[in-house]
Design a protein that fits this description.
This protein is of the alpha/beta class and 171 residues long.
């Protein structure tokens, strides 16, 4: 008895250009500049907005393993605020590498010496660890006061209050 059914084998090409994810090449990456005024801004909320821009998550071409984020200039950092009692009570820890070498500091102490260090630490902890995170953190420029040397790049001004009303601390 002969089989009446004919079996066709369909070979599916595993490398189909239609279904492959499109990645941005290094030559196609365009970095723009953003300017954020930190006056009365909540540090944590400001850091989350900055980290998204620095990583490139605000772009449609985001890929986690590539650096194609934008530059962010933060001005008036001395007027950024913490909510609650965090300015006095929060503790930052670091270790010197020697036995018993744990050091602690508060945002209040950091703010006296380096006003932008609290924001930089917050953004750093929202970026990936390793070489990519360090490269992306270099795109953050923090300045006290209104003036900064990056006005030649024509940065786009971002209003934090328009993004979310809670980003600005009410007195």
């Amino acid at each position: 008895m002969q089989a009446k059914y004919k079996i066709d084998f369909i070979f599916i090409n595993s490398i189909n250009p239609v279904t492959m994810t499109k990645f941005v090449k290094k030559d196609d990456v365009n970095s723009s500049w953003y300017e954020i005024d930190a006056k009365n801004a909540v540090v944590g909320r400001l850091a989350s907005v900055i980290s998204k821009i620095i990583r490139g998550k605000n772009k449609t071409t985001y890929t986690p393993h590539m650096d194609h984020g934008d530059f962010v200039v933060v001005k008036n950092i001395e007027q950024a605020k913490f909510t609650g009692k965090k300015f006095h009570d929060k503790k930052y820890y670091r270790h010197t590498g020697h036995p018993g070498g744990i050091k602690e500091t508060t945002p209040e102490k950091l703010h006296k010496d380096k006003p932008g260090e609290t924001l930089k630490l917050a953004v750093k902890r929202m970026l990936p660890g390793g070489v990519l995170g360090k490269k992306q953190l270099n795109k953050l420029k923090i300045y006290s006061g209104e003036d900064h040397p990056h006005s030649a790049q024509n940065p786009i001004s971002l209003d934090l209050k328009k993004l979310n009303n809670k980003n600005i601390l009410r007195n």
